[in-house]
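Quick question: what would this complex look like in 3D?
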Amino acid sequence: MKSFSYMRARDVTEATRAAQRPGSKVIAGGTNLLDLAKLSIERPSALIDVNRIPGLKEIRRLPDGGVRIGALVTNADLAAHPLIREHYPLLSRAILAGASGQIRNMATTGGNLLQRTRCVQFYDTSDRCNKRAPGSGCGALDGANRMNAIVGGSASCIAVHPSDMAVAMRILDAVVETTDAHGAHRRIPIDDFYVLPDAAPQHETVLTPGEMITGVSLPAPPQGMQSYRKVRDRASYAFALVSVGAIAAVEEGHFTRVRFAFGGIAPKPWRIEAAEAALRGKPRNAQAISTACDIALAGAAGHGDNDFKIALAHRTLIAVLGA
Amino acid sequence: MQGSALAAAVAQTGLVQAAPPDPDAARDALTGSFSIVINSAPHQMTVDTRVTLLDLLRERLMLTGTKKGCDHGQCGACTVLVNGRRVLSCLSLAVMHDGDHVTTVEGLAEGHGPDAKLHPMQAAFLEHDGFQCGYCTPGQICSAVGMLDEWRNGAPSLVTDDLSAHPELSPAELHERMSGNICRCSAYPNIAEAILAVSREGA
Amino acid sequence: MPQAPDALLPAPELSAPIGPGNVRREGHSKVTGNALYSVEYQPDQIGATEPILYGAAVLSTIARGRIAAIDTKNAQAMPGVRLVLTADNVPRQSPWGPLNAPVRFARSQPVFFDRTVRYFGEPVAFVVADTFENATAAADLVSVRYEPLDASIVLKESGGINPAPLHGGKSADSRTGNFDEAFAQSPHQIDVRYDTPYQNHAAMELQGSLAHWKDGKLTVYAPAQIPDAMQEGLAATFGLPKDRVRVVARLIGGGFGGKLPYFSDSVACAIASRILKQPVKFSFTRQQMFTATTHRPAVLHHVRIGVGADGHIHALAHDVVSQTASFDNYLDGDTMGAKGLYRADAIQTTQRIARLDLPRSDSMRSPGDASGTLALESGIDEAARLCGLDPVEFRLRNDTQINPSTGQPFSSRHLAECLRQGAEKFGWSTRRKRREGEWLIGYGVAAAMRDNMLRPSSAEVTLAPDGVLVARLAMTDPGTGSITVLSQIASEAMGIPLDRVTVLIGDTDFPPTAGSGGSFGAESAGSALYEACVALRGALQSKAEVAAGTHLHFADGALIAGDRRYPLGRLVGAAGLTVQGHTAPGMEAKRYAEATFGAHFVEVAVNAVTGEMRCRRMLGAFAAGRILNARTARSQALGGMIWGLSSALIEGNVVDPRGQFVMRDLANYHVPIMADVGAIDVMLLPEIEPVANPIGIKGIGEVGINGAGAAIANAIFDACGVRVRSFPITLDKLLPGLPTLT
């Protein structure tokens, strides 16, 4: 790691002002930032520690039946919170499917949303990567790409967003709340929060320099069974090959409302509302689910090692939504 | 932020050391000061900002019981308890722990040296042969102590069927909850036995 | 050694373990965090007055070529930097090799000695600074310009060469009977190809060293499984007499063969320490370990089995090609199982190596056998199914007490008992292949064999006037339990209570041993220590001046002669008494084939939707000679079995188009975590090895892995009908064969 200055911010204003300086980075749990800094993938010259900012560790009920989650709530606390367990079990389960007990004790809600891809080429500073070194090319397209995206990627990047939590939040229509260095607040629907790589994969979110996540709010949960299923190469402590989160209401064998999204296959949580609409009123069977999956994965293509993810996504969705 | 603005920030926030106007031109390592309680002993430290909690323990305080197995949060060997919760000391900067209470494997037993009275978890690992080479062991033990606390507090895991209930510590629950600690010798069955034994004793 | 007078002194008896076995003697220090590993010593603990400096390595980013230039200016200018070592300024060292050294772990291994790059991730520079943070930051600023050349990085059958010329003409092939003829005439034929992947040891302790020069003598603290080989290697590298190099390896944070060789960390630290006149320590990062140390080679296997109508194997061939580095000759022993597991009229094995521009391959837990039995024991399952025979019955039918390749009788072989008793305990005959919801349940079995080896070793025992026995030997304990079982051997042989026995290991200042590896550790060092104890008993007997014809024995810290009791401490005088013992393979052993045997039974669940696999239940039954300590022996077996599970389902590395290993950390290179491990049971069958050594034991460190993976692969086939012949069996390989969802 190259040297950096360290500042313990006392409030959001101080943090965002400091964080907008070039080279500055906000640090909360640190589980991803330090991992990357040790490999010289992130090279901050100043770290702004936001962990002591008061008021960002609360989970509270909103008048509309939703909840607001402070940006510094740890993954462990969020997953274990009674409100989340009762009303958003999908979110609890998605969080618990990620990382390890120790990491969930450290990682925060805001940091989880902002974690970067685990693409092996991104992690190898001797390899080509347009996300890490714009213009250098993509080593995954013609190299090892078992863990890479089958949808949403581009000719410049096929990295996957690794978060499980974000998949659940996408299904729950989460809104990301931010404050920038000028004190302006934004409420950004999570789908708008992430940007697809296109020609500039170094840009992953719509955050502006210094802009900081202060919390996430979830509207009241929709009716239906909530579930999260993660398929991976070992039984725990591994990133997803494919994960599926869903909320489904079924009456008399037919879907009345369905939401679903995939993790592990795209640069952001992959939810296509048109695919959900296609299931409404349809019988709960493999054919209907598979048809909806085709819509969700329209244009999906493997790159060699990850070809299997298309079939695996179909099968996993059928298992999650099927009888 | 530059020059006087930075100086103001220092005064305001307790910024640990003034960065030069252009931090990229920094030649000298930047340092930070903080106080920390480790195994009940208070320390006032000034260290390079880059020093992780793990390297603070191992290389500055000579508490080498906490191990470096990957330095990237992928093995669990560096697990310690910070304010009672199990965390990875490799993915945490020392300067971030101002005012924190850290317990390492050296702080679990009562007393020091060969006559130290073992923590029940340490005794169980010894009795059940919950290790071979011993390198992951401090992390396993700290993790197990933290994990049992989480379980007693009713925290769910990935394999908890009913999220509204307080789960039993079944083998499946235990295995999932301890999966952040790799043991390459693969003493897992014995580690699980050791932890289950302690969980039953209620220690 | 004093001549024993003719009082009656029977050979010391070692009792079979009673109860669970002693806890590990170094266990207290390990669970309290007091155990010190190599790079954890402080200056005062190594006799240094100066602080210890920190190293950091720079690795190559091409697979083959030449270093055109290394720019170290920026690194040199960083705070705290004391030295940047490259090919431009490295002191002269001996050339690498020799290739065909008697002990390949004792070869000279100079660092940065030329400008040739031989593999991706080869160390090319070494930075030393006052702190870890400064060293690693500076290493990042070393800039290397390469002139790349085309590299050969893909393992192909056609790329194999006969390794004999690289091994002094010694062939690894075997041929018994006429395979082609026997195979052609067999009514049932299996002719299949398997591949097993690159694997990395991934011991939890990072490979690292602490080097210190004092008064012209080099001491290196390093996790060396064989300290004596490393001492010899370092001495050769630096052109020093051996007595000016000391290697200390008191504890090792996991070895698995990955610490049989020594690596550039030791050499670079030693050079830097000499130049800077200060101790220097350095551990590779986890990422660097994947290329800068060794790995298990990928292997291509061709297995052919011809079976008669009666279910007897008529013809068996196992032909392999394994990777080795372009400049090396490492040969994985993949065909050992085919040579010795089953009786067959004709057996043919060939071993070829492909010299590729990849990092060095070398021994990894049960080298050769681990990969070889994945292929062979899967093939045997295929053959049994083809013949319509139960796979246990098929193996029993082809069991033998004579090594079919050499004609030697096995000194002890209880494979059939392992199969029968294991099957009984597992409930093999009542197994029921079935579906439980999404999960397809299946069962598998495989046999295990691991050659037994005794290597020359020595030990020294000192009995002090207070009756405390201290044993010294340059043995190591990478988690195998050596310290514990050696203590037991000395305690039982001398009749001295365990708490009055201290075993000191891991130091080349002690008598040389074969170290730990190849399952030969406990047997070789244990036999040497036993012989030392025999000598000490003889010496004590002389001192006691017992009347001829008196029956003698040693118990409770005393020599008992008839009704007289001589406390041992009083017999040795103020100076104490020190004697040595040695062991080496005897002539008797050459007449026999020696091996440990076992059988694995597993129950797996395969998810019919996703292809996820879970190993629900494993049972290993082993006949490994006398068990010195049931607790540590069981742990060794468990560890091996979980490694087998990993080889079947989880573990394997791949090479990218540049020649770089794709998986270079523990997030990508998966090893089993606790959730991967289901119920595991170990049976240790009573057996005394009658020939190999005076203590009746055989190796147990590796047999657990052999066959365990194949049993799982066979169970997966049983569960879902998909035979995957490319390991590991990841779920993507099963998906095409799983039922369509309706």
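Answer marked as accepted. Residues 5-49 of chain A form a domain with the Uridine Diphospho-n-acetylenolpyruvylglucosamine Reductase; domain 2 fold (CATH 3.30.43).
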